[in-house]
Design brief:
78% helix
Length: 120
C-alpha cells in the first residue's frame, strides 16, 4: 500500500502541472503591469481546471503523509523523481513540447539515481 500512496502522490502532482500549463496556454502570457498581473492570476484562480490542479496538490499531500507513515523519507522521496519522467512525456504528448535527446538523457539519469537511491 505504501507504494500506492507514492504513486498517487506522483500522479496527482503530474496532473496538476499539466492542468495548469494547459490553462495558462489558453489565456496567454503574464501581463507586464502589476495590477494586470494580479488580475490575471486571480482570474486563473477562479478557473475550475486550476482549482482542480490545486485540489490535486492538496490531495497529493494526504497521500504523501500516508506514505510517510510507512516508509523512510530517504527511501520514498527519490520516487518523486518520476514526476520529471511523466511531465516530460506528457508535455511532449499534450503540448508538442520537444523531447530532445538531452532531455531524455537527463531523465534517464534521474531514473538511474532513483534506482540507486531507493536500494538502501
Amino acid at each position: 500500500m505504501s507504494y500506492f500512496y507514492i504513486f498517487m502522490t506522483i500522479l496527482l502532482t503530474v496532473y496538476g502541472q499539466i492542468a495548469i500549463k494547459w490553462q495558462v496556454l489558453k489565456v496567454g502570457a503574464l501581463p507586464e503591469g502589476t495590477a494586470e498581473k494580479v488580475s490575471f492570476l486571480l482570474h486563473l484562480l477562479l478557473n475550475p481546471w486550476i482549482v482542480s490542479a490545486l485540489a490535486a496538490a492538496f490531495l497529493a499531500s494526504f497521500f504523501w503523509m500516508a506514505a510517510m507513515t510507512r516508509l523512510q523519507l530517504s527511501h520514498a522521496y527519490p520516487f518523486m523523481g518520476l514526476t520529471f519522467v511523466l511531465v516530460l512525456l506528457a508535455s511532449g504528448l499534450f503540448f508538442q513540447e520537444p523531447v530532445t535527446l538531452l532531455k531524455v538523457v537527463g531523465v534517464a539519469l534521474i531514473v538511474l539515481g532513483l534506482v540507486v537511491a531507493s536500494q538502501g
